[in-house]
Every structure is written in C-alpha cells, then in structure tokens.
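User: what does the whole thing look like in 3D?
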Amino acid sequence: NAGVTQTPKFRVLKTGQSMTLLCAQDMNHEYMYWYRQDPGMGLRLIHYSVGEGTTAKGEVPDGYNVSRLKKQNFLLGLESAAPSQTSVYFCASSWETGGRNTEAFFGQGTRLTVV
Amino acid sequence: GNSVTQMEGPVTLSEEAFLTINCTYTATGYPSLFWYVQYPGEGLQLLLKATKADDKGSNKGFEATYRKETTSFHLEKGSVQVSDSAVYFCALKWAGNNRKLIWGLGTSLAVNP
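Assistant: Here's the predicted 3D structure for the full assembly of 228 residues, as structure tokens:
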C-alpha cells in the first residue's frame, strides 16, 4: 500500500535552474495539495487541485506552477529556482466526497536546496 | 477568518511526564478538528480527529476533546515516551474554503529518558 509517493527525496539546484517534483497517490483521492515547510512557519499551501485537470493557488503560489493531467499525479514545477525556495516540500491528498471529516495523507517530503 | 493557534515550543519533558499541547481555533460554522504528528525526517500523519462538539479523539494514548464553548482542542497524554518526540500540528477543516486544512504552526516535543 504505497499511499502518497514523492520523487525525488532530495535535490540540490543552482539558482535559475528548473525542476519538477512528482507526487503520485494510489488511493483515488480527488484532492491533492503541495505544501512547503519552513522553520517557524508551519505548513504553507502552494497550490492545490480538487480534481483531474483542475488547479488553484494557495497561500504562496509565486514562483511555482502545477499540473494535474491524471487524477493520481500532481506535479510541482519551479521554472527558475531561487534560494528563497529552499525548503521541504510535502504533497498530500484527501478524499473529499465524504465531506469535511476526512483526513489528508502525506508523502515523505522532498528536501530542496537552492544554492 | 478561520485560524488555529498552538502553544509555542519547544516542549521538553522527561519520560512518563504528563503532556498538554494547547490548541485554540477561530472558525465559522462547524469545523472538524485534527491533530497530526510529524516524526523526524518523515511526513505528517493523522494522530486523531474529532468532528463535532464534545467528541473525543484518541489514539496511541493521546486524547483531545472538541470544546466548542472554549473553541479548543488540546492534546493530552498521561505518560509520554521517548518515541513520542515529534512535531505536533493542530488543524481544522470546514465545508467552506474548498475544504482546505487550516494549520497551526506546530509544537515540537522532545522527551528525555
């Protein structure tokens, strides 16, 4: 039972480089989320998706793009990485058909360093 | 707007001590409340939840009661273990806001043997 899988787990980028983080879930969840976690700032929502083919901005979307071409995958892209994007990135998914009581399932995280 | 406030950490306890981590919330309507735990180097996982007033969520010896009158959802454990060392996040969700979770900033707990 894989749950939510993120790749890669670690990455070092140079300023200005681009990369894509992949999130895959095998629970048939409609909703998927990308968060970043920074010391003292908790979890901040970057982008989210409420279904295949949909995306929406969260609290801190600038500098990131996302795509949800398939229900099970949610990609986070950095077009031109900046040191301020050094963070730990978490993907999560949830089943929302049942209403407001359902939990989110998280991946193991991607530690990204931009130098 | 809706928000979650947690007590600041870090919290340091000795093994077998009593734990309380305070969480209060501001919300319209009737939110569901959650506690998540993040062990070192891992993602978050659900610890417990409560979906209506006076509900008590419990798991692994942890408990929290949904108190609507005080808008609180404090996490408690009677006797902590070294393995409970982690970061604990309080969160809420309600029917609006596209059902996105609203998070507290997290409270770091260190338990010493």
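In plain terms: Residues 52 and 71 of chain A are 5 Å apart (CA to CA). Chain A touches chain B through 26 residues (CB under 8 Å).
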